[in-house]
Amino acid sequence: MVEVINLGEQNSIFNQYIMEIRNVEIQKDSMRFRRNIERMGEIFAYEISKRLDYSPELITTPLGQCDINLVEKQPVIATVLRAGLPLHYGLLNYFDRADNAFVSAYRMHIAPDDFEVKVEYISSPDLQERTLILCDPMLASGQSMLLSYEALLEAYGNPKHVHIVSVISSSEGIQHVKKHVKSNVTIWTGAIDSEMTAQSYIVPGLGDAGDLAFGKKE
Q1: d(CA 169, CA 146)
Q2: Which of 11, 63, 96, 192 ranks highest by number of CB atoms within 10 Å?
Q3: What is the chain's mean pLDDT, rounded?
């Protein structure tokens, strides 16, 4: 069974960042938008860290020794370019020894309201029996997330567990991903919205995360 964890359902400072990235006035500040996404990545990383395997390690201090439980094996953090970069950096701030992977995916428009998602480039370490954290700030239709997931596993092996991270998701996208991934997957999100436009933008959502973070593209 695929577990879905919505951090926005909990009362925490996380909701302050969700409010600011959604707010049409505050989100005009691209630096603040990127930093808020990064902050949420840090919170996701902290929560995910509770799910990893730990073992005790003997540490020498100036006055003696003590055992501290540390992560046995660092995860691999993968991001869907370009919008995923601030979220990736937030996760990497906490998993600062993690290996990294990158997926270039884009929409190929057939008609104004019809498109296909294509995976153009992928770079990753071996994923066999590793913990994979795959992040993209928006999980709308779920196509790009699912294609990235499938491409990573096909080329680089089967992870021990996969954590899929999105800041805002659509309920349709969540169901689509749940239907097609393996059982060793946990989906983390900060909000689940019920609607999408014909162009697969989440409503109320926040707009185009990549454009808000890095400027409009042609």
Answers
A1: 13
A2: 192
A3: 92
As given in the structure block, the two tokens for residue 154 are 């096909």
Q: What is the CATH number of the domain that holds 89?
A: 3.40.50.2020
pTM of this prediction? 0.92
Structure letter (DSSP) for residue 165: E
| Domain membership flag for residue 204 | yes
Strand partners, 131: 161
Confirm whether 67 is domain-assigned.
no
Tally of domains in the chain: 1
| CA 103/CA 150 separation, integer angstroms | 11
Q: 141 by DSSP, 3-state: which?
A: coil
Strands (E), 29-175: 54-61, 64-71, 76-81, 99-111, 114-123, 131-135, 138-139, 161-166, 168-170
CA–CA dist 15, 26 (Å, integer): 14
Looking at the domain assignment, is residue 65 inside a domain? no
Q: Structural domain of residue 105, as residue ranges?
A: 3-51+81-214
The answer to whether position 71 is within a domain reads: no
Residue at token pair 């998993």:
95
Which of 133, 144, 135 shows the shortest CA–CA distance to 168?
Answer: 135
Determine the Cα–Cα distance for residues 130 and 128; give it in Å rounded to an integer: 5
Find the length of the chain: 218
How many beta carbons lie within 10 A of that of residue 92, not counting itself? 19
The backbone torsions φ and ψ at residue 214, rounded to the nearest 5 degrees and listed phi first, read -130, 5
